């Protein structure tokens, strides 16, 4: 986190309603709270709470997703850790082991914090459909336990219009959806990936960069909806089918008992998911 982003985070937390809302979201963990739930708990108007959460979201401290007509927010642990890292980067005269109590983030709030968020990268060629869909699904279904990203080896000009239409119709937040080059995630400054999933055959056959931290990887190939032919309804159906396949696989992934699986068993599960077309 750079100084400007840190200042934005501190500014967002420098107001009583926003600070208290942020603390409550940290306390409840991955399940998060809706705007209405937070407003009722704190005795403020819904629109006041909505504005407060928008400021926190802009500062990267919370993330929100739509559930029907309601917006539900969770604490963005990556942003919180970035802020703590910024504060403790040169602490204790260059002896970071002295700052060990801060590693759990407990000192920031005094409350118990959710388990470490796992970073997941969905990778394809154009980053205009399948990988973006995977990113959107996991960021909602992961409930704060996973932070999803996506990229392409040869990204296009932007998300396919049918991708955006589909995600909007299914109440996904598309405000941050964009096509990205995989080089963004191969630098030392990029988030360290725990999992990398390729979702198209072309990406699986290409030489990928060496990802920091040696993440676990698997191929979850999905037919390319962008290549679909026919009338508009038939082409849109191809996007819906890609969404269905990815949703089924991601649903299995987020429910894996990762704490009880050794690395070899987890890799086997990830490979099996890539062969899944319907819920198990």
Provide structural commentary.
With 280 residues, the chain is an alpha/beta fold. It folds into 2 domains: 1-114, Arc Repressor Mutant, subunit A (Orthogonal Bundle), CATH 1.10.10.10; 118-273, 3-Layer(aba) Sandwich (Rossmann fold). It contains 11 helices and 7 strands. The protein has helices at residues 3-13, 16-28, 35-42, 46-58, 77-88, 106-109, 130-141, 161-169, 201-205, 232-254, 263-273; strands at residues 33-34, 62-67, 70-75, 118-124, 146-152, 195-198, 216-219. The strands form 2 sheets. A 4-stranded parallel sheet has the order 5-4-6-7. Strands 1-3-2 form a 3-stranded antiparallel sheet. α7 packs across α10. The relative contact order is 0.10.
Classify the secondary structure makeup into a structural class: alpha/beta
Q: What's the CATH C level of the largest domain?
A: Alpha Beta
State the order of secondary-structure elements, H for helix, E for strand. Answer: HHEHHEEHHEHEHEHEHH
The low-pLDDT segments are 101-115
C-alpha Rg (nearest Å): 20 Å
Q: How does CATH name the architecture of the largest domain?
A: 3-Layer(aba) Sandwich
CATH topology of the largest domain: Rossmann fold
- What portion of the residues fall into strands of 2 or more residues? 5-15%
The biggest beta sheet, please? 4 strands, parallel
Instruction: Determine the mean pLDDT.
Output: 83
Q: How many E-type strands?
A: 7
Shape: globular
The number of helical segments is: 11
CA(first)-CA(last) distance = 40 Å
Number of domains: 2
Helix content: 40-55%
CATH superfamily of the largest domain: Response regulator
């Amino acid at each position: 986190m750079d100084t400007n982003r840190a200042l934005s985070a501190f500014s967002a937390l420098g107001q009583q309603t926003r600070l208290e809302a942020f603390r409550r979201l940290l306390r409840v963990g991955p399940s998060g709270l809706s705007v209405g739930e937070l407003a009722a708990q704190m005795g403020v108007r819904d629109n006041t709470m909505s504005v407060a959460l928008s400021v926190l979201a802009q500062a990267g401290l919370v993330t929100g997703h739509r559930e029907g007509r309601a917006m539900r927010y969770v604490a963005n642990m990556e942003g919180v850790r970035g802020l703590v890292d910024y504060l403790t980067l040169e602490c204790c005269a260059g002896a970071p082991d002295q700052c060990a109590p801060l590693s759990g983030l407990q000192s920031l709030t005094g409350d118990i914090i959710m388990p470490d968020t796992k970073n997941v990268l969905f990778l394809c060629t154009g980053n205009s459909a399948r990988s973006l869909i995977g990113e959107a699904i996991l960021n909602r279904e992961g409930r704060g336990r996973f932070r999803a990203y996506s990229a392409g080896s040869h990204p296009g000009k932007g998300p396919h219009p049918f991708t955006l239409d589909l995600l909007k119709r299914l109440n996904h937040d598309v405000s941050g959806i964009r096509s990205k080059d995989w080089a963004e995630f191969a630098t030392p400054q990029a988030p360290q990936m725990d999992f990398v999933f390729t979702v198209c055959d072309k990406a699986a056959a290409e030489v990928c960069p060496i990802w920091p931290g040696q993440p676990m990887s698997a191929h979850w190939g999905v037919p390319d909806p962008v290549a679909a032919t026919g009338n508009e309804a038939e082409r849109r159906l191809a996007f819906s089918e890609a969404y269905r396949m990815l949703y089924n696989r991601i649903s299995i992934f987020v429910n894996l008992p990762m704490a009880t699986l050794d690395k070899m068993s987890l890799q086997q599960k990830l490979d099996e998911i890539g062969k899944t077309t319907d819920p198990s």
